[in-house]
Automatic annotation (TrEMBL):
Keyword Transport among record annotations: yes
Biological processes annotated in GO: intracellular zinc ion homeostasis
Annotated Cation efflux protein transmembrane domain residues: 8-202
Cation efflux protein cytoplasmic domain sequence ranges: 211-285
UniProt xrefs under PANTHER family: MITOCHONDRIAL METAL TRANSPORTER 1-RELATED (PTHR43840)
The UniProt record lists the keyword Transmembrane helix: yes
Taxonomic placement: Bacteria, Pseudomonadati, Bacteroidota, Sphingobacteriia, Sphingobacteriales
NCBIfam families tied to this protein: CDF
Domain of life per record: Bacteria
Family: Belongs to the cation diffusion facilitator (CDF) transporter (TC 2.A.4) family.
GO molecular function, one term: ferrous iron transmembrane transporter activity
The protein's name in its UniProt record: Cation diffusion facilitator family transporter
Record membrane topology: Multi-pass membrane protein
Residue ranges crossing the lipid bilayer per the database entry: 7-28, 34-55, 75-94, 114-131, 152-171
Amino acid sequence: MSIKKKAIILSLVVSIVLMLAKFTAYFITGSNAILTDAAESIVNVIAGSFAFYSIYLSTQPRDENHPYGHGKVEFFSVFVEGILIFIAGIIIIFKSSYNLIYPHAVGQLLQGTLIIGITGLINMFVGLYLIKVGKDEHSVTLQADGRHLLTDTYTSGGVVLGLILIQLTNIIWLDSLLSVLVGFYIIYAGYKLVRGSVGGLMDESDFTLLEEVVEVLQNNRHNPWIDVHNLRTQQYGPEFHVDCHVTLPYYFDLNQVHREISQIDELINKNGFRKAELFIHADPCLPACCHYCHMSECKVRAEAFKQEITWTPEIVIKNKKHFENELL
């Protein structure tokens, strides 16, 4: 079993146990704030179940109907999780607003506070673990689930502080007010997950990933690689795809072009970000490229080398050779 599957199973089991613990705390105390935290745990269980299925599906090999694999299902999983969190926040706000107007008594807050505090700590450790594994395995689902559990930790911390304040002041309506505030925070957390998943589904550029690719190319550039432009990245679950144009000397034969392109492919895949699939289009150089070309022994050079153009994300994403960028 892969480490991703083990991590999401751990998350699911922990979410079920903590959900039962939080509802026990609610039945003991009758606190709306604790009910808010318990209700979010239901979302944790549902989202964890869907996340497990999405991770299972994302690890399936490519087939005729899915030539790029099944990795994008992870973005859909994050979208569903965000929507569930968003809905839970709205329900919590409405119920708590009602109880703010018509408050009811709460009891045994000390026991409830201890239970919520312990569940919050457990969620924090599991959430940090999921985020670490998600980053190592390049899984947006695990990272989203980890951030969700950290959100649950923050809400549990807020609930604990609120319950302590209620015990100190004996102001009962603070319970519902705290629940409303937590509900708004939960809605915000859900919005961030939905926003990120939609960006992934629409192939929104990952600027951090782009910077990593450009840095590797810049630090290991070969003289025949005169410039790199029209560079784009797409992520499909644990895999990502890079396509770009590389300007090479126009007199290179097909074998030489293939060798240079293969070296770029090997370079990206050996620098440890993740498994990458590259689509590289070779462009022939023009006389206007000579002043930034490192091919010192070139027999057709029309102009002396003047200055290297440092590859940056802002330069390489443009669909123009570097001398054309200089004219802008």
